């Protein structure tokens, strides 16, 4: 089978996600299913002993049965709480796997619409596609149960094939002929085949419907997220989007209901034929067993064992096949899933370690650097070359969309160049281990995020933090008073998600905390990509200056639209349509005709 490798991988991943759960489940399922079959064996033995009037043996058989049954029953019930706990953990782990992947995946892949769509599809598939990792996990308890029952049934049916006594004198001798048994076995194989075909057909039908269900669910979930997101609440009210959203939800409910009706209908397909074949087999098998027992070819006790095992076989085998067919009919889900999981990770990139230098002598340069975002042809950076000296302060300025942030993202290797190269100490940056390379940069982006964890954890970006170190930078960025007023100081949660005592910081306070975070990381190269855009020009100017004094002799890049904020920098790089069109100090650039002087004078007008 073409996709067998994928199914094997899925089973291994499931096993890794919940070894304890599956082991306990196997023991419990075996114990539960065995209770039924052990009772058939003992019934057989008891009836035979009673018919032989061997009452002494009956007593010991009953005692043994009670002991075995009690052990099996205790195992079944006592394991349940541990199984519930282990299942909860295993379920969670399985659902987490794609999100964990997002954390380690290369950033430029994460930052693409295609990846978000893939993740959304995986999320949706988990609940609706039969061969999603999650649904395979849901089916495993049933599969185990059916499988163990089928194996037990076959074991108990062995006498039907082994105890063949042909007297050569009876007109019923044909009942024991190997041909009759062969026809019976062919009947079972045929019923398996019919069951498989009909299950596969309905599974394929369901698979097609699933596509529509996923599409509808994606929209439904998107709208639900909008509705639950308190931040959208403002816009929803102001632009009166409520009616449209209610209407959308109603339409989605209706189309989901229609699709689900189709799914239920699909489940019925082929069911009838399977039931007819199964009933025929029942009838033939009972007739064979009955006639044999009547003719004395089988001991009377066997009638219970054989007929019960047969009933179990004919009810569990179709279920086992149906479940397997459902899982095997949608390999595409696993193909999609593993294509996502196999996307390259940060750690797969580069192998050179980065030399740890106390003198911060990390020389960065870009040579003929060009870049287009994935799935686009527009060059956002076009043949940019520049060298940066250690310890110097650089300003990157230019109009909206001129490529400033993109340049920074490339410097940090969040994206790789389309052409040209970035070098660190004269070696192509792509050769360095990416995780070590990231350690070289402390960055505050325009759209920085603080998380709903404790303030101290936000600053250290770690569970544990060094209070003295955090407080040092807090003081330096004039946040000490704010922190002293928080209910639990550095231990205070940001936002209300995890604690009612959590606080909402103002925009300006958040920006300073983001700057403290960058200082705490204490990397050799500092970058501020306009995190202070929401502040007034004077405050931004002060913060940039203050920050620059704090980082001493580190190399730094400052992006701002307010040229006055970056005036103190050693060099200013003026970006225009993806190129560096001017480079020099403020005093040099302001004197010559060009973009910088134009922008400077245009802004100066407003500040006069
Ligand atoms: N992830 C992305 N995928 C595709 N195009 C992008 C992506 N990010 C940015 N762009 C495009 O790249 C161009 C440069 O964007 P960039 O953010 O680098 O400009 P910028 O100079 O920093 O602008 P601003 O001053 O507004 O922050 C823009 O045209 C933008 O639309």
UniProtKB/TrEMBL annotation:
Domain ABC transporter: 364-602
Entry annotated with the keyword Ligase: no
Coiled-coil blocks: none
Molecular-function annotations in GO: ATP binding
Location, primary (coarse class): membrane
Compartments, record wording: Cell membrane
Occurrences of domain ABC transmembrane type-1 (ranges): 135-329
Keyword ATP-binding carried by entry: yes
Keyword annotations from UniProtKB, A to Z: ATP-binding, Membrane, Nucleotide-binding, Transmembrane, Transmembrane helix
Record-annotated membrane-spanning stretches: 21-42, 62-83, 133-158, 178-197, 272-295
SMART domains attached to this UniProt entry: AAA
Membrane topology: Multi-pass membrane protein
InterPro entries to which the protein is assigned, alphabetical: AAA+_ATPase (IPR003593), ABC1_TM_dom (IPR011527), ABC1_TM_sf (IPR036640), ABC_transporter-like_ATP-bd (IPR003439), P-loop_NTPase (IPR027417), Type_1_exporter (IPR039421)
Domain of life from the UniProt record: Bacteria
Protein name (record): ABC transporter ATP-binding protein/permease
Source organism per UniProt: Fundicoccus culcitae
């Amino acid at each position: 089978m073409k996709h067998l490798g994928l199914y094997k991988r899925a089973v291994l991943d499931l096993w890794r996600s919940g070894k304890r759960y599956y082991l306990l489940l196997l023991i419990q399922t075996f114990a539960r299913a065995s209770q039924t079959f052990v009772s058939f064996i003992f019934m057989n033995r008891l009836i035979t002993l009673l018919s032989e009037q061997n009452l002494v043996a009956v007593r010991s058989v009953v005692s043994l049965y009670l002991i075995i049954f009690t052990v099996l029953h205790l195992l079944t019930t006592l394991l349940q709480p541990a199984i519930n706990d282990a299942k909860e953990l295993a379920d969670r782990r399985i659902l987490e796997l794609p999100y964990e992947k997002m954390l380690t995946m290369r950033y430029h892949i994460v930052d693409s619409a295609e990846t978000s769509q893939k993740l959304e599809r995986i999320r949706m598939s988990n609940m609706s596609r039969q061969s999603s990792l999650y649904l395979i996990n849901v089916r495993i308890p049933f599969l185990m149960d059916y499988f163990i029952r089928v194996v037990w049934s076959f074991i108990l049916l062995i006498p039907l094939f082994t105890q063949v006594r042909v007297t050569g004198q009876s007109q019923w001798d044909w009942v024991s002929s190997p041909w009759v048994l062969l026809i019976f076995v062919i009947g079972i194989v045929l019923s398996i085949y019919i069951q498989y075909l009909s299950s596969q057909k309905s599974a394929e039908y369901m698979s097609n419907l699933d596509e529509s269900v996923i599409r509808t669910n994606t929209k439904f979930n998107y709208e639900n997220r909008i509705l639950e997101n308190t931040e959208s609440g403002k816009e929803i009210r102001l632009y009166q989007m409520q009616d449209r959203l209610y209407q959308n939800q109603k339409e989605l409910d209706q189309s989901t209901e229609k699709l689900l009706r189709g799914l239920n209908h699909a489940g019925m397909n082929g069911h009838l034929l399977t039931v007819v074949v199964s009933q025929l087999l029942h009838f033939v098998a009972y007739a064979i067993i009955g006639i044999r027992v009547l003719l004395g070819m089988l001991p009377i006790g066997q009638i219970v064992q054989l007929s019960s095992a047969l009933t179990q076989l004919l009810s569990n085998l179709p279920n086992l096949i149906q479940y397997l067919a459902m899982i095997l009919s949608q390999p595409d889900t696993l193909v999609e899933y593993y294509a996502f999981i196999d996307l390259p990770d940060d750690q797969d990139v580069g192998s050179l370690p980065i030399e740890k230098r106390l003198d911060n002598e990390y020389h960065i340069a870009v040579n003929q650097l060009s870049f287009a975002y994935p799935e686009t042809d527009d060059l956002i950076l076009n043949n940019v070359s520049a060298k940066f000296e250690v310890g110097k302060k650089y300003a990157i300025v230019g109009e909206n969309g001129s490529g400033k942030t993109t340049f920074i993202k490339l410097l940090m290797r969040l994206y790789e160049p389309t052409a040209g190269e970035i070098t660190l100490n004269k070696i192509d940056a792509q050769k360095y281990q990416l995780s070590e390379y990231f350690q070289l940069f402390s960055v505050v982006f325009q759209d920085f995020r603080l998380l709903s964890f404790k303030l101290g954890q936000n600053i250290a970006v770690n569970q544990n933090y060094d209070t003295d170190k955090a407080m040092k930078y807090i003081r330096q960025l004039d946040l000490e008073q704010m922190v002293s007023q928080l209910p639990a100081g550095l231990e205070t949660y940001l936002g209300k998600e995890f604690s009612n005592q959590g606080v909402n910081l103002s925009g300006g306070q958040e920006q300073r905390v983001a700057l403290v975070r960058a200082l705490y990381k204490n990397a050799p190269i500092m970058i501020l990509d306009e995190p202070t855009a929401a502040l007034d020009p004077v405050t931004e100017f002060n913060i940039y200056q203050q920050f620059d004094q704090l980082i001493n002799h580190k190399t730094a890049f400052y992006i701002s639209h307010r040229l006055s904020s970056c005036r103190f920098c050693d060099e200013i790089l003026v970006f225009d349509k993806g190129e560096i069109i001017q480079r020099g100090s403020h005093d040099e650039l302001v004197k010559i005709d060009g973009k910088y002087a134009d922008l400077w004078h245009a802004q100066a007008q407003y500040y006069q």
